[in-house]
Specification:
Layout: H1 11-21, H2 32-41, E1 52-53, E2 59-63, E3 72-78, E4 84-91, H3 102-110, E5 114-115, E6 120-121, H4 126-132, E7 140-150, E8 156-173, H5 174-182, H6 189-192, H7 195-217, E9 227-233, E10 236-243, H8 247-269, E11 274-278, H9 285-294, H10 305-318, H11 323-334, E12 338-342, H12 369-383, H13 391-424, E13 431-440, E14 443-449, E15 452-457, E16 473-482, E17 487-491
Helix pairs in contact: 1-13, 7-8
Amino acid sequence: MSTAHPYHFNLVTAAHAAMLEHGFQPDFPAGTEAELATIQAGAGNRAAPDAQDLRGLLWSSIDNDTSKDLDQIEWAEQLPDGRIRVLVGVADVDARVAEGTLLDTHARSETTSVYTGVKVFPMLPAELSEGITSLNENEDRVALVIEYAVDAAGAATDGKAYRALVRNRAQLAYNSVGAWLAGTGAAPPKVAASADLAAQLKLQDAAAQRMLGSRFQHGALDLETIETRPVMLAEQAVEIARLEKSRATSLIEEFMVAANGVIARILEAAGVASIRRIVRTPKRWDRIVTLAAGLGATLPAEPDSKALNDFLLAQKQKDPDHFPDLSLAVVKLMGPGEYVLVQPNEVSPGHFGLAVQDYTHSTAPNRRFPDMVTQRLMKAWLAKTPQPYSTGDLGAIAARCTQMEDAARKVEREMQKRIAAVVLRPRIGQSFRAIVTGVNHYGTFVRTLDPHVEGMLVNAGKPGAARLDVGDRVTVKLISTDPERGFVDFAV
C-alpha cells in the first residue's frame, strides 16, 4: 500500500547529530562572530602588494549548480608553438584567515566541509567561504594563480605560481556547460551571449582533453561510481537525482590535477616539506586480479594501473549497466586516499588512481584545510619568509585530515541512506527494476535503477525464492523504509 502523504523526518537534525557522532563540531565556537567582524572590517585583501593585476582576463568558474563556495577560476590562451597556456586562479583564503586565529584553529580541527545533501557544514563560516573568500562573479579578489602550458601530447610543463588580483566574469554550472561542450545541449545563456566566452571555454576543453588522454595513456583509472543528490521542496527531500559526469567535470578535474602537480613540484624543487594526497599501490591487488578473472579478463600479477584501466575501459563498453558497481568494487579494493607528510628529497608514494607521482591538494582552500596549509607554504616561499609549519606540524595535520575525511565519508554515506528512506517512504508498495549488488552473510543487496537507491532484499533467502547473485537483474517491491536507521527494504 502506498503512503498517501510525504513522510516528514527532520533530515537536517539527523545530519547535525551524525556530525557530532563522528567527531565534528558543526557549530562554530564562541568568539567566531567577533573575529568575523574584524575580518570583514579589513579594507581589501590582506597583504597583497606583490599581486599582479589580471582582472582584465576573461576568467570563469564551473561548479555544481548549487555551489556557493567558489575556490577556483580558469583562463587559457593559444600559444604560437601550438601549446595551450592555462591559468588556474585559486582563492587566497589565507589573505583573510590568518594562522593561529580562532577560525583557523577550528578549520584545523574540522579539516573539511561536509556535504550531507540537505545541509552543508562548512569548514569556514559562510560569510567567508561563500562571501569574501569565494571567487564570486563580478567581485575583485586576490588569488594564488597556478600557470602551466599543455602540449599536443597532453604534458603540462613550465609550471609556476604567483599572486594576482582577479575577477570572475562568469559563474557557470557543470550540467549546462557539459551538455554544450558535448553537443547535446544549447549553450548556457552567458555563453550564448558572448562569443569570446564560448571560444575561451572551447580552448579550455581542448587543453583538458589533451591532458585526459595523456593520463589515460599512463594508467589513470576511468572509474564511474554513482553520485546522487536530493531534490528539495519546502525543506523536504522529495526525489533523488543522479549527478552525471560530463565534459565540464572532466575539464575542471584535469585542470586541478595539473595545478596540484605544479604546486607539488615547485615545493619539492624548493626543498619545502609538504602534505601530499596519495592513493597507495593496492595491497589487495590479488583480489582485483580475481575480480577481473571472474569477468573473463587477465591482469598481471603485480599492480599495473595501465592494465587495470584497459580492463575497465573494455568492461565499460561491454556492460555499461554494471560498470558503476565494478568501479565501486575496484575503489574499495584500492583502499581510501590519505594525506602524508613528504619531506624534501623523499619519494612520494604517488596517486595510483590518477597515475601521477606529484600530487598535493591546493585548489580548494575554502573547503579543505590541507589546501589552506599548502597555500601558506607556497606564499611563504614566494615571499621568501620562514615556513609557517614544522615537519612535526605537517605530519600531525596530515594524520588529522585523513581521519576527518574518513569521518566525513561516513556522515555523507549515512545521510544518503536516510535521504533515500525519506524519499521512498511514500512509494511503499511500488515495484522497481534493480540489480543485485551484493550477496553475503548479512543478506542480499540491490540497487534500484530509477532512482538509484541501495536496499536489502528481505525475502531473498526464503524457501522457494530463486537464488540470486551479483549482477542479476530483478524486479523488487518496496516494503518498508526506516529513515532513523537509513534502512530500505525490498522483496522480490
